Amino acid sequence: MIYCFEAAGRVTSGVCSTCGSACSSCSHACNNACNSIQCTACCKSLTNVSSRPLGCFVILAFLLNVPAGILAVLSALDEEVQRCRAAPVLAWCYGALMLSITNAAFAFYMQHKLASAIESGTQRGARDIFRHAGTIVLYDFVFCFYIMLFAAGFVFCFLGVGWWQTCHIHSWEAVWAALLLLFFAFGTMGFTCCWGFAVGCWGGLEALGLSSSLARIFFGVREQPVVFAAPVQPAPYRMAAPGANTSQALRPGY
């Protein structure tokens, strides 16, 4: 029995040593791979995007439009879609791909535009953010063009679902792409309402003199330090000698 236990222990020890060596090799390989593709820089870039103003909007655009674009490409490669002549489903797939790319690009553009306007100013309160956002909405040509494209894309998604039903296509990639684009449209409208409401609440907190650290974290604006002026000390006075002129009884001196 002793020899049996010793043999079992040696086998177990050998298996564990082999597994440990394999895990160490995998860990070393993963570390080398991460260093080669600079995962740290990639994570830092993602952190910078999420911590800036409209970071939630950029993440929403990325999570919904990238899969929508991939599904549109897969649908365009489907043979049933390519053979369909009853409705322009293939053209819709290409249009959905361009719409998803435009949505993601506009999210990054809007974040860069608003962050640059905020960082260029001296004040970073709620009123200033609202003023910068209003300037972009009223005077930015790209924003005005995207609003028209956004409305057209909303209708375009419903047309795609109808064309998909007309062609009797068995694959569902085009439908899922249209649904993701519609989710992004509704999510954008909801985020805009919540963002405006949050700006108003932040402005109310500032008007009351209350802390708004949570709102500053949400909007990605760093709180500027408040600098207080040092109190001015009065100059010491000394009494004049007895018999001196009374108009010069008190005079500053050290």
From TrEMBL:
UniProt keyword terms in alphabetical order: Membrane, Transmembrane, Transmembrane helix
Q: Is the Transmembrane helix keyword given for this protein?
A: yes
Task: Please give the start and end residues of each transmembrane region.
Answer: 54-77, 89-110, 137-164, 176-205
Q: What is this protein called?
A: Uncharacterized protein
* Organism field: Effrenium voratum
